[in-house]
Each structure stands twice: as C-alpha cells, then as structure tokens.
Design a protein that fits this description.
By secondary structure, this protein is mainly beta. The chain has two domains: 51-142, Immunoglobulin-like; 168-284, no CATH class. It is built from one helix and 22 strands. The N and C termini lie far apart (74 Å). The model is unreliable at 1-13, 20-43 and 153-165 (pLDDT under 50).
C-alpha cells in the first residue's frame, strides 16, 4: 500500500496527535482518581493540639485564653466562638502567628456579646508540619438583666493527649527502673510498666530544653527517681539534676522521658517527632554475633 509524501505526513501527524490525546486523557483520569480520595487520607497526626483555659469576664466582654505549641515550622492560631458548637465567629482575622517558643500563651478579647446567651468556644492552631489541631470545647454564659454571671466551664470533652504525672521511683538504694522491649526488630528501653522511653537530640552535657516552664513536660514526662535511688536496669544508667529540682534518669548521658500519646505499653508514637529537637526512642545496640 503506497502513500504520497503528503499522505504519509498526514498519517504521522494524526497518529502523533492520537497518542498525545490518549496521554492527556490518562493524566486527566489520574488527577480525577486522586481528587476522589478521602480528604483524611494520609493526614498527619497532631500530637500537640492547643489547650484552652477558662474564659475570663472583663468590663466589656470576655477574654479567651489558651496555649499554643510550636512543634516545628510556622504555627498560627485563632479562637472560634458562637452560641452553639458550630461557633461561627473567628478572632483574630487573619490568624495570628505564635512565637517560636515551645509553648506560647495566647489570648483575645471579644465584645458585642448577647445577654442571656451561653457561648461555646475553642482554640485552633495550624502548623506547617503537622496540620491543624483543636482544643476542647468550652463555654461561658452572658447573664441576662438582673442575673449574676455564671462561671465559665472547663472543657466538655478534652481532645489533647491525656497527661499523667512524671514517672517517679521512690525509696533509696539500687532500684530497677527500666527494662528492654523488642519492637520491630529494635531493642528499646521502657519503664518497668512497659512505656517506651525517649531522648531529645539537643539535650546533652546537662543542657535542658524540655522543662516545666516551657510546658514541654506536660507532654514529655521525665523519668525521675528519689534523691537516694541508684537507678538500675539491663543497661548502665545515670542521673542528672533537672531545673525543677528533681533527679532524672539518663542513658548514655541523655535524659529519659515517656510520651503522653503512648497510651499502651509498646507504643512508639513519639519516634522522630520534631519540636525543639528530634525525639528518638532510646535504643540499645544489638550485640553483633560472634564469628
């Protein structure tokens, strides 16, 4: 079958256009498939949601207050409030930027509130690393004419990690305070109750970054012992004096902590988290097999 020069060119152009069109249709189909995925697919877990404290009544309205945690990247925040848990109003607009400290106290004054109305409110923070987190819902009530104002309520249902006091071992003399656990082929240090222990990359040579003053120890709980205790375990341990005056257990010179979001023994949710440094599960080197 023969083709003229013009015929061959026309066939080649048509064939090339057909291939390009097929390729474009494939791209469109792929984009459509991605767009149809659930919005929550692959969403980051927010380990440091903001926390709110009871609103304070002022001469002209209420002051909303709370704490925002900066866990790396840029953190912004706003308060939401309204006559129902749907809120409806946000302040400030646009969002304010939190400081670069681990924990920042933030507040906003709100006015123009309706008397005889119960308001719901919460604190919302967004971080370029982990996404958006929300505090628990709180309420306050604007009294009607001739009615005494009500006390703002505490959170109805906390969304932040449930925290517990730092693990402290009392007594005196040698005390076993840690053990090892095998997790995904790694030998990790844990408390005697099985909670994974972590170290912070920047805490070396007695330098402390995670302190009670910064709010860090509300999430990362120091493993502490009474002053007369000599900590023992399957590895060599030491101690260091904390800024708060307690004695913390160390491994290889690094202070040991548990993580509030590890709810069960063996969980390692804090591995690799970044805030003022990088948190790593305390790992015991695996002995090399003898030849």
């Amino acid at each position: 079958m023969g083709f003229s020069k013009s015929g061959r060119c026309g066939w080649l152009l048509g064939h090339s256009r057909g291939r390009r069109l097929a390729g474009l249709l494939g791209v469109v189909a792929a984009v459509g498939a991605i767009a149809s995925l659930p919005a929550t697919a692959g969403a980051a877990i927010v380990y440091y949601p903001p926390s709110a404290t009871p609103a304070v009544q002022t001469a002209t309205g209420f002051e909303l207050k709370g704490n925002v945690y900066d866990y790396g990247g840029t953190t912004t925040y706003h308060f939401e409030y309204g006559p129902s848990p749907a809120y409806g109003t946000s302040v400030p607009v646009p969002d304010a930027e939190a400081s670069t400290s681990l924990s920042s106290s933030v507040s906003e004054q709100i006015t123009g509130l309706m008397s005889g109305t119960t308001y719901h409110w919460r604190l919302v923070s967004t971080n370029s690393v982990e996404g958006t987190g929300f505090s628990a819902d709180q309420t306050f009530t604007i009294a009607g004419a001739g009615t005494a104002p009500t006390t703002p309520t505490m959170p109805m249902a906390p969304t932040a990690p449930t925290t517990s006091p730092p693990t402290t071992v009392g007594g005196s003399g040698p005390k076993r305070v840690v053990k090892t656990r095998s997790v995904k082929g790694r030998t990790l240090l844990a408390t005697t109750a099985g909670r994974t222990l972590y170290t912070l990359s920047v805490e070396k040579h007695g330098k402390f970054v995670c302190t009670a003053e910064s709010g860090c120890t509300g999430i990362w709980h120091p493993l502490t012992v009474a002053a007369g205790v000599k900590p023992q375990g399957p590895v060599k341990l030491g101690t260091v004096s904390r800024p708060e005056g307690t004695v913390q257990v160390t491994y290889r010179g690094l202070p040991l902590y548990t993580f509030a979001s590890d709810k069960k023994a063996g969980e390692v949710k804090g591995e690799g988290l970044k805030d003022v440094g990088v948190w790593h599960a305390a790992t015991v080197p695996t002995p090399k097999p003898s030849r």
